[in-house]
Specification:
The chain is mainly beta and 624 residues long. It has 5 helices and 43 strands. About 7% of the residues have low confidence.
Length: 624
């Protein structure tokens, strides 16, 4: 047995030695089967999996709410930190149920939107953001208790830091957890963790006792600025009343209404309600502690005659009453005013600017007064009405027109008008058939022409532009005419415009390869204008350049019979600055593809007093 065991043991040792002597791969090499190698190659050939789009466009990670008690309210800030995941602008809701006074992002003002009571901001992404909201909340104060409701932002975490008046004030919050409380300098500072998205209620005990105060006697001063408007059937009053409180806290003011007048409106920043009873108008205010109040009171009464006594509003209990009166007449009337009882006449320009701004017609008289116990101001009005006449809403002192004509028969025309305008919003332009307006300017800024059912319209005004003096209106139009032949006849037309034009100056620039003669139409050659007329009208001679920045004076009262008829051959001249400027505009500004002539001959014409009618010039031509 011993011999057999020894033989078996020797065999096991030999087998172990054979296994340990198997060949091993060199370091850095791996031996794979062919199937495993092919699988790895197939995996390497697959494209990488794209990044999944974020399930939400944004996330608000954390919110810090810092509040303090100020007077009868809660003021503080809410700082929101988060991230916008998607590219571009994302609408991020910030907070709801809180009055936001201001918003900032990275030290710059941030505009907010409000949808269904939620303040929202448009933030760009992808990227992180930090928004700070200055906010306020109302504070409820009851007997021995103060409280308020706090909207909590829907963030990942919300921390609250709050300063409450009083040492060691016991504050409570629900829902939420107060994590720190300490007292310093007569205040209690608390820190708390809030439940995101759930409104919290905070309350604490107050030890302040309200000492009853004896109401002080009310003393105030009144100043009434009154506009009296006399029309054909009624007298209207607009009274801008300024009240200055010098003592007490009045909750209402009473106004004695003049007999026969009906109150049509009362407004004011501190006005809470009004009440009229027995000829007394009561104005109830919502801020009795305010030292100043302002009310605008409107009233009217019907009239049938041509004279009336102007009323003066009086506030009951005022310690001093002063005021101004401005008189205007609607329509065409001659109005006289006779003052008495301490009423002093003054220049209309000395009247208060806010009072003058209420007037719709030129004021005819102005007065001031200071009521005394011994005298009452009186004002007797009497008027004579005249039939209303038509009023010219707008006129053009001059029109400078420049036309470039191509050999293809196309023409590009610029019209520059020096306009005086009172109320007309648009200039109606009746373009010739085949013409299109390319651009328009008002006061040096681009405007958009309007296509109406009855023709084209060029704006005479633009938002924020209400001039009181003459200003420039211009437009450019293109007309596709018939191509020029070797010889023949042609005509050019300017559109009719629905405002009167005192003097129209027209420069026509024709290609140099054509010889032009036999001019006709309803215009006059510029060199035929008499010298005296030319000086007054500002028409350039044949050797002068036309400066389009200077307005030609109006020709009202001029006898146009001095002007001669158009000769057959109008004088030629070199191109003016107007032609050069229009050529440059075609090259770099105007949205038009037209090959304007760079060399050619200019012909100048004028036409005085154009009244909503077409202007035309005809000529014959022959190729050189």
């Amino acid at each position: 047995m011993k011999n057999i065991f020894a033989v078996l043991l020797l065999g096991c040792v030999c087998m172990a030695q054979e296994k340990s002597t198997l060949p091993l791969p060199d370091p850095g090499n791996v031996t794979l089967t062919l199937d495993e190698y092919n699988r790895l190659v197939a995996l390497a050939a697959k494209p990488p999996k794209g990044t999944d789009l974020a399930p939400l466009p944004y996330s608000i990670k954390h919110a810090d709410v810092k509040l303090h008690i100020e007077n009868d309210g809660v003021r503080g800030s809410v700082q929101l930190q988060g991230e916008v995941f998607r590219k571009g602008m994302s609408k991020v809701p910030l907070i709801a149920g809180m009055t936001v006074l201001d918003a900032h992002q990275n030290g710059k003002d941030l505009p907010l939107l409000q949808e269904n009571g939620t303040h929202m901001a448009l933030l760009s992404g992808p990227g992180e953001f930090s928004v700070t909201l200055d906010s306020g909340l109302p504070l409820r104060i009851e007997a021995g208790r103060a409280s308020f409701n706090l909207p909590v932002p829907a963030a990942g975490s919300v921390q609250l830091a709050m300063l409450i008046p009083g040492d060691h004030t016991l504050a409570n919050i629900s829902p939420g957890l107060i994590t720190s409380r300490k007292s310093e300098n007569g205040h209690t500072a608390i820190e708390a963790t809030l439940v995101p998205g759930q409104p919290a209620t905070l309350w604490w005990a107050t030890r302040e006792t309200v000492t009853p105060t004896v109401p002080r006697e009310v003393r105030f001063l009144s100043e009434a600025k009154t506009l009296i408007s006399v029309s054909e059937a009624e007298i209207r009053l607009a009274v801008l009343a300024d009240i200055t409180v010098v003592q007490g806290e009045p909750s209402q003011f009473q106004v004695e209404l003049p007999a026969g007048y009906e109150v049509t409106g009362v407004t004011g920043a501190t006005l809470d309600a009004t009440e009229t009873q027995s000829g007394i108008l009561t104005l109830k205010v919502n801020a009795p502690t305010r030292r100043s109040h302002q009310f605008l009171i409107s009233m009217e009464r019907s009239i049938s005659g041509a004279k009336a006594d102007a009323p003066f509003l009086s506030f009951k209990g005022a310690q001093r009453e002063t005021g101004e009166v401005l008189i205007e007449g609607t329509g065409t009337m001659e109005l006289s005013a006779t003052e008495g009882g301490g009423l002093k006449r003054m220049d209309v320009k000395e009247a208060n600017p806010y009072l003058r701004s209420l007037a719709h017609f030129p004021p005819q008289a102005a007065f001031r007064y200071h009521k005394q116990a011994s005298e009452t101001p009186t004002l007797a009005l009497q008027w004579t009405r005249f039939p209303d006449g038509s009023v010219l809403a707008a006129e053009a002192e001059s029109a400078v027109v420049t036309t470039l004509v191509t050999s293809e028969g196309k023409s590009l025309t610029e019209v520059r008008l020096i306009v005086k305008n009172q109320a007309q919003p648009f200039l109606k332009v009746a373009l010739p058939a085949g013409a299109t307006i390319l651009s328009a300017d008002v006061g040096g800024e681009r405007v958009k022409p309007v296509q109406g059912p009855d023709g084209n319209r060029v704006p005479l005004l633009r938002p924020g532009f209400r001039p009181t003096d003459s200003y420039l209106v211009s437009f450019v139009f293109m007309h596709s005419g018939a191509p020029f032949a070797k010889k023949g006849g042609a005509d050019l037309s300017l559109p009719s415009m629905d405002i009167p034009i005192s003097l129209l100056s027209w420069e026509v620039f024709l290609p140099e390869q054509y010889k032009v003669k036999d001019f006709g139409g309803d215009v006059i050659a510029a060199n035929l204008v008499p010298p005296a007329f030319r000086t007054d009208a500002g028409v350039a001679s044949t050797s002068e350049m036309v400066d389009v920045t200077a307005a030609a004076p109006a020709l009202h009262g001029r006898d146009y019979t001095e002007l001669k008829q158009l000769e057959k051959n109008a004088p030629q001249q070199s191109a003016s600055a107007n032609v050069v400027n229009l050529q440059r505009r075609v090259a770099g500004v105007l949205p038009v593809a037209i090959d304007v002539p760079r060399t050619g001959t200019s012909f100048s014409f004028v036409r005085p007093l154009v009244l909503d009618e077409e202007t035309k010039v005809t000529f014959s031509y022959k190729s050189r």
